[in-house]
Protein backbone atom coordinates (compact mmCIF):
# COMPACT_ATOMS: atom_id res chain seq x y z
CA UNK A 1 0.00 0.00 0.00
CA UNK A 2 1.28 3.48 -0.83
CA UNK A 3 1.86 6.00 1.96
CA UNK A 4 0.28 8.71 -0.16
CA UNK A 5 -2.07 8.77 -3.15
CA UNK A 6 -3.20 12.06 -4.63
CA UNK A 7 -5.69 11.79 -7.49
CA UNK A 8 -6.78 14.64 -9.75
CA UNK A 9 -6.55 17.12 -6.89
CA UNK A 10 -7.78 20.57 -7.85
CA UNK A 11 -8.34 23.49 -5.53
CA UNK A 12 -9.36 27.13 -5.84
CA UNK A 13 -9.18 29.55 -2.92
CA UNK A 14 -12.42 31.34 -1.94
CA UNK A 15 -11.28 34.44 -3.88
CA UNK A 16 -11.22 32.32 -7.03
CA UNK A 17 -7.42 31.83 -7.32
CA UNK A 18 -6.94 28.37 -8.79
CA UNK A 19 -3.87 26.97 -6.98
CA UNK A 20 -3.99 23.29 -8.04
CA UNK A 21 -5.19 21.96 -11.38
CA UNK A 22 -5.42 18.18 -11.15
CA UNK A 23 -2.40 16.86 -9.26
CA UNK A 24 -1.66 13.11 -9.47
CA UNK A 25 0.96 11.67 -7.20
CA UNK A 26 1.81 8.36 -5.50
CA UNK A 27 4.48 7.88 -2.88
CA UNK A 28 5.41 4.35 -1.84
CA UNK A 29 6.14 3.44 1.75
CA UNK A 30 9.76 4.26 2.68
CA UNK A 31 10.40 6.63 -0.25
CA UNK A 32 11.97 10.05 0.33
CA UNK A 33 10.66 12.52 -2.21
CA UNK A 34 11.53 16.20 -2.73
CA UNK A 35 8.78 18.59 -3.78
CA UNK A 36 10.36 21.43 -5.75
CA UNK A 37 8.83 24.42 -7.47
CA UNK A 38 8.97 28.21 -7.66
CA UNK A 39 7.09 30.51 -5.31
CA UNK A 40 3.37 30.42 -5.96
CA UNK A 41 3.52 26.96 -7.60
CA UNK A 42 1.02 25.47 -5.15
CA UNK A 43 3.37 23.54 -2.83
CA UNK A 44 1.88 24.91 0.39
CA UNK A 45 -1.64 24.40 -0.93
CA UNK A 46 -0.81 20.77 -1.74
CA UNK A 47 0.76 20.16 1.69
CA UNK A 48 -2.29 21.67 3.40
CA UNK A 49 -4.42 19.03 1.67
CA UNK A 50 -2.29 16.18 3.01
CA UNK A 51 -3.44 16.58 6.59
CA UNK A 52 -6.83 18.09 5.89
CA UNK A 53 -6.17 21.76 6.73
CA UNK A 54 -7.75 22.18 3.29
CA UNK A 55 -10.11 19.59 1.85
CA UNK A 56 -10.18 18.67 -1.81
CA UNK A 57 -12.22 20.94 -4.04
CA UNK A 58 -12.00 18.16 -6.60
CA UNK A 59 -10.20 14.81 -6.55
CA UNK A 60 -8.89 12.90 -3.56
CA UNK A 61 -6.02 12.45 -1.11
CA UNK A 62 -5.47 9.07 0.57
CA UNK A 63 -2.93 8.35 3.30
CA UNK A 64 -2.09 4.66 3.76
CA UNK A 65 -5.51 3.75 2.42
CA UNK A 66 -7.49 6.26 4.50
CA UNK A 67 -9.14 9.07 2.53
CA UNK A 68 -8.64 12.61 3.88
CA UNK A 69 -12.16 13.72 4.82
CA UNK A 70 -13.77 15.62 7.66
CA UNK A 71 -14.75 12.37 9.41
CA UNK A 72 -11.21 10.90 9.18
CA UNK A 73 -9.29 14.01 10.27
CA UNK A 74 -8.19 12.73 13.69
CA UNK A 75 -6.67 9.61 12.16
CA UNK A 76 -5.14 11.55 9.25
CA UNK A 77 -3.45 14.06 11.56
CA UNK A 78 -1.81 11.21 13.44
CA UNK A 79 -0.61 9.62 10.19
CA UNK A 80 0.69 12.77 8.49
CA UNK A 81 3.44 14.42 10.50
CA UNK A 82 3.87 18.01 9.39
CA UNK A 83 7.12 19.72 10.40
CA UNK A 84 6.70 23.46 9.93
CA UNK A 85 9.43 25.72 8.66
CA UNK A 86 9.60 27.58 11.97
CA UNK A 87 10.03 25.20 14.94
CA UNK A 88 8.68 27.91 17.22
CA UNK A 89 5.28 27.33 15.60
CA UNK A 90 5.48 23.77 16.86
CA UNK A 91 7.09 24.02 20.32
CA UNK A 92 5.12 25.69 23.08
CA UNK A 93 5.57 23.63 26.27
CA UNK A 94 7.93 24.37 29.22
CA UNK A 95 10.25 21.47 28.40
CA UNK A 96 11.33 19.44 25.39
CA UNK A 97 9.88 16.31 27.03
CA UNK A 98 6.46 17.96 27.44
CA UNK A 99 6.45 19.06 23.82
CA UNK A 100 7.23 15.57 22.54
CA UNK A 101 4.71 14.00 24.97
CA UNK A 102 1.90 16.39 23.97
CA UNK A 103 0.60 14.51 20.91
CA UNK A 104 0.81 10.96 22.26
CA UNK A 105 -0.68 12.08 25.64
CA UNK A 106 -3.57 13.64 23.74
CA UNK A 107 -4.00 10.33 21.94
CA UNK A 108 -4.38 8.66 25.36
CA UNK A 109 -0.89 7.34 26.13
CA UNK A 110 0.11 7.44 29.83
CA UNK A 111 2.84 6.38 32.25
CA UNK A 112 5.61 4.10 31.08
CA UNK A 113 4.18 3.75 27.58
CA UNK A 114 4.28 7.51 27.14
CA UNK A 115 7.83 7.73 28.56
CA UNK A 116 9.01 5.04 26.17
CA UNK A 117 7.55 6.81 23.13
CA UNK A 118 9.01 10.19 24.15
CA UNK A 119 12.43 8.68 24.81
CA UNK A 120 12.38 6.82 21.49
CA UNK A 121 11.46 9.93 19.50
CA UNK A 122 14.13 12.06 21.21
CA UNK A 123 16.76 9.36 20.69
CA UNK A 124 15.99 9.21 16.98
CA UNK A 125 16.83 12.92 16.61
CA UNK A 126 19.77 12.84 19.05
CA UNK A 127 18.07 15.13 21.60
CA UNK A 128 17.45 12.85 24.58
CA UNK A 129 19.96 14.77 26.70
CA UNK A 130 17.88 17.91 26.27
CA UNK A 131 14.61 16.34 27.51
CA UNK A 132 14.35 18.54 30.60
CA UNK A 133 15.43 21.80 28.97
CA UNK A 134 13.09 24.55 27.85
CA UNK A 135 12.92 24.55 24.02
CA UNK A 136 13.75 28.28 23.88
CA UNK A 137 17.17 27.57 25.43
CA UNK A 138 18.14 25.40 22.46
CA UNK A 139 19.77 26.46 19.20
CA UNK A 140 17.58 26.80 16.11
CA UNK A 141 18.93 23.53 14.70
CA UNK A 142 18.21 21.71 17.96
CA UNK A 143 14.68 23.16 18.05
CA UNK A 144 14.09 21.90 14.53
CA UNK A 145 15.21 18.42 15.62
CA UNK A 146 12.84 18.55 18.59
CA UNK A 147 10.04 19.62 16.21
CA UNK A 148 10.80 16.49 14.15
CA UNK A 149 10.65 14.42 17.37
CA UNK A 150 7.20 15.81 18.28
CA UNK A 151 5.96 14.45 14.98
CA UNK A 152 7.86 11.13 15.16
CA UNK A 153 6.31 10.50 18.58
CA UNK A 154 2.98 10.03 16.76
CA UNK A 155 4.53 7.27 14.60
CA UNK A 156 3.39 8.90 11.37
CA UNK A 157 2.97 7.11 8.07
CA UNK A 158 4.55 10.06 6.28
CA UNK A 159 6.75 12.90 7.47
CA UNK A 160 6.16 16.14 5.56
CA UNK A 161 8.90 18.73 6.01
CA UNK A 162 8.62 22.35 4.94
CA UNK A 163 12.08 23.74 4.05
CA UNK A 164 13.95 21.54 6.54
CA UNK A 165 17.37 23.10 5.83
CA UNK A 166 16.29 26.74 6.11
CA UNK A 167 18.22 28.86 8.64
CA UNK A 168 20.56 26.00 9.59
CA UNK A 169 24.32 26.46 9.68
CA UNK A 170 26.27 23.90 7.61
CA UNK A 171 26.90 21.55 10.56
CA UNK A 172 23.27 21.59 11.70
CA UNK A 173 22.17 21.09 8.09
CA UNK A 174 24.38 17.99 7.80
CA UNK A 175 23.29 16.63 11.21
CA UNK A 176 19.63 16.93 10.21
CA UNK A 177 20.39 15.17 6.91
CA UNK A 178 21.97 12.28 8.81
CA UNK A 179 18.94 12.05 11.07
CA UNK A 180 16.46 12.12 8.19
CA UNK A 181 18.41 9.43 6.36
CA UNK A 182 18.41 7.21 9.45
CA UNK A 183 14.62 7.30 9.89
CA UNK A 184 12.58 4.40 8.65
CA UNK A 185 9.69 6.57 7.46
CA UNK A 186 8.23 7.92 4.22
CA UNK A 187 9.32 11.52 3.67
CA UNK A 188 7.98 14.33 1.50
CA UNK A 189 10.24 17.35 1.70
CA UNK A 190 9.32 20.77 0.30
CA UNK A 191 12.51 22.63 -0.47
CA UNK A 192 14.30 25.27 -2.52
CA UNK A 193 17.62 23.75 -1.42
CA UNK A 194 18.33 21.62 -4.49
CA UNK A 195 21.62 20.11 -3.19
CA UNK A 196 19.75 19.02 -0.05
CA UNK A 197 17.07 17.40 -2.21
CA UNK A 198 19.81 15.57 -4.13
CA UNK A 199 21.51 14.45 -0.95
CA UNK A 200 18.38 13.11 0.73
CA UNK A 201 15.81 12.20 -1.89
CA UNK A 202 16.16 9.72 -4.72
CA UNK A 203 13.08 11.11 -6.37
CA UNK A 204 11.92 14.67 -6.95
CA UNK A 205 8.80 16.35 -8.24
CA UNK A 206 8.45 19.79 -9.75
CA UNK A 207 5.14 21.44 -9.03
CA UNK A 208 4.60 24.39 -11.31
CA UNK A 209 1.45 26.44 -11.86
CA UNK A 210 -0.58 23.91 -9.93
CA UNK A 211 0.44 20.78 -11.85
CA UNK A 212 3.20 18.19 -11.51
CA UNK A 213 5.56 19.26 -14.30
CA UNK A 214 8.24 16.63 -13.65
CA UNK A 215 8.60 13.44 -11.60
CA UNK A 216 11.98 11.76 -11.92
CA UNK A 217 15.08 10.65 -10.06
CA UNK A 218 16.43 13.81 -8.41
CA UNK A 219 19.78 13.43 -10.14
CA UNK A 220 18.14 13.26 -13.60
CA UNK A 221 15.90 16.19 -12.88
CA UNK A 222 18.67 18.43 -11.53
CA UNK A 223 20.88 17.59 -14.51
CA UNK A 224 18.30 19.07 -16.90
CA UNK A 225 19.25 22.76 -17.01
CA UNK A 226 16.47 23.64 -19.42
CA UNK A 227 13.80 22.01 -17.23
CA UNK A 228 15.12 23.83 -14.16
CA UNK A 229 15.20 27.19 -15.93
CA UNK A 230 11.65 26.71 -17.22
CA UNK A 231 10.44 26.37 -13.62
CA UNK A 232 12.63 29.07 -12.07
CA UNK A 233 14.79 26.55 -10.21
CA UNK A 234 18.49 27.27 -9.81
CA UNK A 235 21.39 25.30 -8.46
CA UNK A 236 23.76 27.34 -6.27
CA UNK A 237 26.63 29.09 -8.03
CA UNK A 238 29.40 26.64 -8.90
CA UNK A 239 27.41 23.56 -7.88
CA UNK A 240 28.00 20.52 -10.07
CA UNK A 241 26.06 17.27 -9.71
CA UNK A 242 28.61 14.91 -8.12
CA UNK A 243 29.61 11.91 -10.21
CA UNK A 244 28.38 8.66 -8.59
P1 LIG B 1 3.94 27.87 -2.94
O1 LIG B 1 3.82 27.23 -1.60
O2 LIG B 1 4.44 26.91 -4.00
O3 LIG B 1 4.72 29.15 -2.94
P2 LIG B 1 1.10 28.43 -2.64
O4 LIG B 1 0.42 27.10 -2.47
O5 LIG B 1 1.34 29.25 -1.43
O6 LIG B 1 2.46 28.23 -3.46
O7 LIG B 1 0.24 29.32 -3.65
C1 LIG B 1 -0.35 28.83 -4.84
C2 LIG B 1 -1.23 29.91 -5.45
O8 LIG B 1 -2.33 30.15 -4.60
C3 LIG B 1 -0.53 31.26 -5.63
O9 LIG B 1 -1.06 31.83 -6.81
C4 LIG B 1 -0.98 32.04 -4.41
O10 LIG B 1 -0.98 33.41 -4.67
C5 LIG B 1 -2.38 31.51 -4.19
N1 LIG B 1 -2.81 31.56 -2.77
C6 LIG B 1 -2.16 31.05 -1.70
N2 LIG B 1 -2.86 31.25 -0.57
C7 LIG B 1 -3.99 31.90 -0.93
C8 LIG B 1 -5.14 32.40 -0.22
N3 LIG B 1 -5.28 32.22 1.09
N4 LIG B 1 -6.10 33.02 -0.95
C9 LIG B 1 -5.99 33.18 -2.28
N5 LIG B 1 -4.93 32.73 -3.01
C10 LIG B 1 -3.96 32.11 -2.35
UniProtKB/TrEMBL annotation:
Domain ABC transporter: 4-234
Alphabetized UniProt keyword annotations: ATP-binding, Cell membrane, Membrane, Nucleotide-binding, Translocase, Transport
CDD domains per the UniProt record, alphabetical: ABC_cobalt_CbiO_domain1
Similarity comment: family membership: Belongs to the ABC transporter superfamily.
InterPro entries: AAA+_ATPase, ABC_transporter-like_ATP-bd, ABC_transporter-like_CS, ABC_transpr_CbiO/EcfA_su, Co_trans_ATP-bd, ECF_ABC_transporter_ATP-bd, P-loop_NTPase
Protein's GO biological process: cobalt ion transport
Listed name of the protein: ABC transporter ATP-binding protein
Membrane topology field: Peripheral membrane protein
UniProt organism field: Nonomuraea longispora
Highest rank taxon of the organism: Bacteria
GO molecular function (one): ATPase-coupled transmembrane transporter activity
Cell compartment(s), UniProt: Cell membrane
One Gene Ontology CC term in the entry: ATP-binding cassette (ABC) transporter complex
Known role: Probably part of an ABC transporter complex. Responsible for energy coupling to the transport system. Part of an ABC transporter complex. Responsible for energy coupling to the transport system.
Amino acid sequence: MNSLEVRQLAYAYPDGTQALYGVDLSIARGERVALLGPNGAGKTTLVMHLNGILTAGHGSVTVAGTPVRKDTLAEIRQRVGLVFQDPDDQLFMPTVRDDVAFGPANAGLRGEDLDRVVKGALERVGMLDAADRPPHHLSFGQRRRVAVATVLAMEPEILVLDEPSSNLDPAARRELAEILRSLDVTVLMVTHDLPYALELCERALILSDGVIAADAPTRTLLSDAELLARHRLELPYGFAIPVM
